[in-house]
Sequence to fold (276 residues):
Amino acid sequence: MTRTERRTRRAAQVTGVGVAALLALSACSSGDSGDTSAKSDASPSASGSAKLSGTVTVFAAASLKESFTALGQEFEEAHPGTKVTFNFGGSDTLAASITGGAPADVFASASPKTMAIVTDAKDNATAPVTFVRNQLEIATLPGNPDKVSSLKDLTKSGLKVVLCAKEVPCGAAAQKALAAGSLELTPVSYEQDVKAALTKVELKEADAAVVYKTDVHAAGDKVEGVEFPESADAVNDYPITLLKDAPNAEAAKAFIALVRSADGQKVLTEAGFLQP
Fold:
């Protein structure tokens, strides 16, 4: 290639770059003039929201039923085309189902110990994060006819008391509280989750039950709550995690984000949960 040919080629390249620059500047000027619709449509949040669809399956501790149901409805309204389904129950039972292969996207447990069943099996996709805490309370019949005013009162002869099973978080917490008060209690039955224990009182099949404050709150005037100081020694942390091989991982992440958001925390604290 001659020197003249090289000069001609270089001039053409420079001219091409200049034209490209002018076109880019023109495009920027046009965008700055007020036409922001293209930017809006391409925003990460807008595109992310548009992609969320399908069912999110959440396995959650029974004590989360009311608040998570409300959050599920909020999520569906914010993301049309999605549906949140729940499996509420004893955290130990749910954990066993997950490690046994039950398909689910999210696990919210009532204790780190039951969450460990899942993490030890490496069935979690993210590290569990504590999103709320919960404290025990005594649920009595409306009007508290047996004049229960302390945990020690539950040991009275003839009083029918129900506890959660010892392997369930609410049951393990109750055992801690009893130990803190150097008390021994033989219940008329051990129930597999906190809602089952509370139902015994609601149906007047038991005089009292040791449950969570959130469950007493949810029951309204069906029961009466009695606080006791030993409960401070048995506060449960509630961890949540995205599960391995979640069928709808992206929507599941968004649901977890809602639970941990200011709006989610407001719903949970109004239900009686404590901040993490």
